[in-house]
Amino acid sequence: VEAGDRALVLGLVEPLHAADIADFLEQIDASERLAFLALYSGEIDGDLLSEIDETIREEVIGSLPAEVVAEAVRDLDTDDVVDILEDLDSPAQGRILDALDMADRVAVEQAMAYPEGSAGRLMQREVVVAPEHWTVGEAIDFLRGEEVLPDQFYHVILVDPRMKPLGYVTLGRILSARREAALKDLAEESFRTVEADEDEEEVAYIFNQYHLISCPVVDAGGRLVGVITIDDAMNVLDEGHEEDMLLLAGVGEEASVLDGPFATVRQRLPWLVVNLFTASLSAFVISRFEATITAIVALAALMPIVASTGGIAGTQSLAVAVRALATRDLTAANARRVVLRELAAGAINGMALAAILGLAGWAIFGDPWIGGVLAMAMIVNQIVAALGGVLVPLTLERMGLDPALASGTFVTTLTDVMGFLAFLGLATLVLL
Amino acid sequence: VEAGDRALVLGLVEPLHAADIADFLEQIDASERLAFLALYSGEIDGDLLSEIDETIREEVIGSLPAEVVAEAVRDLDTDDVVDILEDLDSPAQGRILDALDMADRVAVEQAMAYPEGSAGRLMQREVVVAPEHWTVGEAIDFLRGEEVLPDQFYHVILVDPRMKPLGYVTLGRILSARREAALKDLAEESFRTVEADEDEEEVAYIFNQYHLISCPVVDAGGRLVGVITIDDAMNVLDEGHEEDMLLLAGVGEEASVLDGPFATVRQRLPWLVVNLFTASLSAFVISRFEATITAIVALAALMPIVASTGGIAGTQSLAVAVRALATRDLTAANARRVVLRELAAGAINGMALAAILGLAGWAIFGDPWIGGVLAMAMIVNQIVAALGGVLVPLTLERMGLDPALASGTFVTTLTDVMGFLAFLGLATLVLL
Questions:
Q1: pLDDT of residue B41
Q2: Is residue A254 predicted with pLDDT exceeding 70?
Q3: Residues B172 and B43 in one domain
Q4: Residue A255 lies inside a defined structural domain of this protein
Q5: Which of residues 99-128 of B touch A (CB under 8 A)?
Q6: Is A365 an 8 Å CB contact of chain B?
Q7: Which of A188, A191, A247, B171 is an S-S bond match for A404, by CB 3.0 to 4.6 Å?
Q8: Is the CB of A295 inside 8 Å of chain B's CB atoms?
Q9: How far is CA A300 from the centre of its chain?
């Protein structure tokens, strides 16, 4: 295909959805991508630019002639243009802004003035509004008369003369009502707006919680400035999950499978270095017990069992707590109950594991005291792990930090240190 | 509030959204919940039942008089009724089915006949269709004449006389076109349907990939049987993420912060027991080197550093790979490139960490050989961790299993065993 047959390439790609072409571009390597774009360009679609992953978008835009990019972005709604601009450097931003119509350009620049990750960045400026006193017939006639309507709209927003939103009517209701019906009487029962500087994760939560399909955005004065649609909220929700999962694992939140090795090292090495220091804590704890290990060298082989099982238990408790904080199922109102639940579950798990490990230790070493020490250390560490898994993210949240941030490293350090300390400490007391 | 003042309770709860009342019920404890429901019942809303978390829904429904539940479910769309029924035992299901109108009952029973987790369970049966040859005017007149329309609909689906869907028109387009326009000419360019037995995760992926707002569902014969709306797809996406995160951490996918201690133990203990056995592998490896440890007891303190840093690196690589498999950014087409990228990143991280740890080891123990052994073991284990993190989920996926399933346990076992083996093995060769 890359043999230069332009007609063939276009013929193959033509029937595909922009999202699929973008996936294809992401998965081939950089030189194939350039060759493909050289053949394909001139026909590039704005949707393709917005579908493409941000890690390669700059490269793609850079490889295209400026006028092709300008043409492509002109068809997009403002929220998609903002999304593309966010990740470019400022000369590239300027070139795209210059290509837009005056009105779109102002709209995009206003949106870019809101902080990154805010509702203002997420919204489209294209809104469909009607005065509150209009009838269904007036609204339909108005819509028929408009030349340009947004690609997506699901409600007509009712506004007062100062553009304050008062409610909204779904298009389904407008279509099924008689022409004489007042829009006001068809408005949805529940109606909410978000402020333009609201955090986008909060917006996604509101969409998910209240099953919204679109939501008007207002400025500090309460006036309508745009609308956010559910597909954008779904995207934020999706990225929020990704961020939680990657942060929990100690990877930079921007990590992508498409990154090269150096970007990957940059994201991961910092946490590995942090872990090198926290692991040295465990080493220090163990080194305090060298006399005990010298006396009974079998302890050296057994000590990772208690630490490792504690690490898994801490990770389990942590995953449930981080998820519950994200969905707001864990709040100040039930934190006490959840912590007590973890305490109870940790104690029960600890006793069950202690029974297995204690008996196995006794059987293998023929010494009930070794079994007893393993069992006791296991119970202590399982309780520490279960509590740590919920208390670490709760504490981070209370400090105003992301509860997923490096929780994994904190919790496994805790369970490692406690695991070695409990096991070797008890062994020193009981066995020597 | 729980002092029995019914009017006060209703007054406080009345202005709240069903989703917020459900959250409130989830966060108070079981006895408060019963007292609250006793006061509140008689007025219960179908939406509240569908918002409530499935872990307590059975309890809530059990505590309400049968006729109150029956009344509540009657207003819901069929997909919401199906969602409630799925989690109940069969006598409770029967009571709710009996309460429905004949038509709704048949629709719900047909949906329940599709496998759990399929598009057929997710769809609502209420659809808005029009013959392909209709004009906008005919469609509007038809909608105005219908008594009952679905709560949510965003498209009119065009069908042939045998109910095969041919395309769809957004309501926005219908509203903005003249009455004479043919619906056919307004149909969306891209149109796709899903089969009723398609997996719901696949459906959520299609919505997210193609930015759909609703999608018709067809049976094996290609006839329209229902429609899935984006809010349901968003919900599946959300739960799919939760499942991945919990499975990665070795927790049952149904785990919730609302579970009691025994449910929690049931979810977590199995993986802890598995880990007890895998950790014994590490113990076995270490026990083979008891002579080495006896000779240089400091090795016992140092050995967890290499294993623990490897565990973190494996978790990082794993999180990125599992996420990329879920979003289909990692496929057969680029697996080779991603594996090579991990190999390179692992080697670079390993060398960086080896430099720090090797010099520290030399400085602290005054012996360049100890530093050298630490450094070499670190490089080996970082490479194993990076490769294991991507190869384990790829292998699980190729075997048709969920790539998140217990990957965490496999990868940390691998990095523990390799960490101890590389460090103690090299130490035996070099230092003795």
A1: 60
A2: yes
A3: no
A4: no
A5: none
A6: no
A7: A247
A8: no
A9: 41
- Asked if residues B290 and B357 have their Cβ atoms less than 8 Å apart, the reply is no
Give yes or no: residues A226 and A295 share one domain: no
B53: amino acid identity, one letter = D
Task: Verify whether the Cβ–Cβ distance B312 to A275 is below 8 Å.
Answer: yes
Strand ranges for B224-346 from DSSP E: 224-229
Q: Looking at the structure, tell me whether residues A266 and A394 fall in a common domain.
A: yes
Same domain (yes/no): A178, A134: yes
User: Is pLDDT at B2 greater than 60 in this prediction?
Assistant: no
Q: Do A293 and A414 sit in the same domain of this protein?
A: yes
Domain residues for the domain of B232 are 129-248
**Which pLDDT tens digit goes with each residue over A320-333?**
998 888 888 888 88
A238-252, B121-135, B215-229, B387-401: least confident range: A238-252
Q: Which of residues 405-424 of A touch B (CB under 8 A)?
A: 408-409, 412, 416, 420
CATH code of residue B323: 1.10.357.20
Q: Residue B142: which CATH number?
A: 3.10.580.10
Helices (H) and strands (E) in chain B, counts: 21, 6
What are the pLDDT digits (tens) for A147-170?
A: 778 878 899 999 999 999 999 999
For residue A158, list its beta bridge partners.
Answer: A130, A167
Check B316 against A416: CB less than 8 A apart: no
Longest dimension (CA), chain B: 94
Q: Find tokens 């957004």 and name the residue.
A: B170
Output the six-digit token pair for A401. Answer: 């930090």
Residues in chain A: 432
**The CATH number of the domain where B75 resides is what?**
1.25.60.10
Model ipTM over 0.85: no
Q: Tell how many helices (H) and how many strands (E) occur in chain A.
A: 21, 6
Among B248, B277, B297, the domain-final residue is B248
Q: Which residues of A touch B29 (CB under 8 A)?
A: 337
Number of domains in chain A: 3
Q: Is A172 on the interface with B (CB under 8 A)?
A: yes
CA B191, CA B168: separation in Å to the nearest integer? 7
Q: Mean pLDDT across the stretch B165-177? A: 91
- Is residue A187 located within the same domain as residue A72? no
B279 and B215 share one domain: no
Farthest CA pair distance, chain A: 94
Separation between Cα atoms, residue B427 and residue B432, nearest integer Å: 7
Out of A209-213, A256-260, B101-105, B135-139, the most confident range is B135-139
Q: Which of A272, A275, A286, A302 to mutate to test the interface with B (most CBs of B within 10 A)?
A: A272
Among candidates A27, A279, A352 on the partner chain, residue whose Cβ is nearest the Cβ of B269: A352
User: What per-residue confidence (pLDDT) applies to B360?
Assistant: 93
The answer to whether position A118 is within a domain reads: no
Q: Is the pLDDT reported for residue A82 higher than 80?
A: yes
Say if B162 falls within a structural domain.
yes
Rounded to whole angstroms, the Cα distance separating A30 from A58 reads 12
In terms of domains, do B107 and B141 share one? Answer: no
Does B1 reside within a domain? Answer: no
**Mean pLDDT within A45-74:** 78
Handedness of CA B73, B74, B80, B81 (dihedral sign): positive
Strands, sheet with B165-170, edge to edge from the N-terminal-most edge strand: B129-131, B155-159, B165-170
Domain end (from B248, B276, B307): B248
